[in-house]
Specification:
The chain contains five helices and six strands; from the N terminus they run E-E-H-E-H-E-H-E-H-H-E. The protein is of the alpha+beta class and 144 residues long. It has a single domain, classed as Beta Polymerase, domain 2. The radius of gyration is 16 Å and the shape is globular. The N terminus is likely disordered.
């Protein structure tokens, strides 16, 4: 098992605005966070706000290791985006949400992994391609 970390400096209109750690390989025995990072929550809420400006969003939820509080330095930030209407093209929607997530990454240094879920899928998780994922989000997710 190998853990490699290096600092990446990102520049925006105002110069260097932050650092983040880039990781490769496997991680082990990294300390868990007791609570969600304020920076992560702020970035996730900013992402949800941006999505709500252009998408028929019902709600957004932080899930995964960031919501459970056991994330590590290389964890991404999983955000479920619950959308109104009939299920659309998952891949096209995911890619469009990834564009919004990239803008948040540039502004905050926080990597958002969006997951589009339509209200019909949420209402009937047993019909979703991965019912356990929706059950986990329902159980562990934090409303944004």
């Amino acid at each position: 098992m190998l853990f490699v970390a290096s600092r990446l400096y990102s520049t925006g209109a105002n110069g260097i605005f932050g650092t983040q750690m880039a990781c490769s390989g496997k991680l082990h025995s990294m300390p868990a966070q007791a609570l969600q990072s304020p920076a992560v929550l702020s970035a996730a809420r900013d992402f949800a706000r941006r999505v709500a400006l252009t998408w028929p969003m019902q709600s957004a939820m932080l899930f995964g290791s960031q919501a459970r509080g056991n994330s590590h330095i290389c964890s991404d930030t999983d955000v479920a985006v619950l959308l109104h209407g009939a299920p659309g093209d998952f891949v096209a929607t995911k890619l469009a949400l990834d564009d919004v997530a990239y803008d948040v990454l540039l502004d905050s240094g926080i990597r958002i992994q969006p997951l589009p879920i339509w209200e019909g899928e949420w209402a009937h998780p047993e019909q979703y391609s991965n019912p356990r994922l929706l059950e986990n989000i329902a159980r562990e997710g934090l409303a944004l």
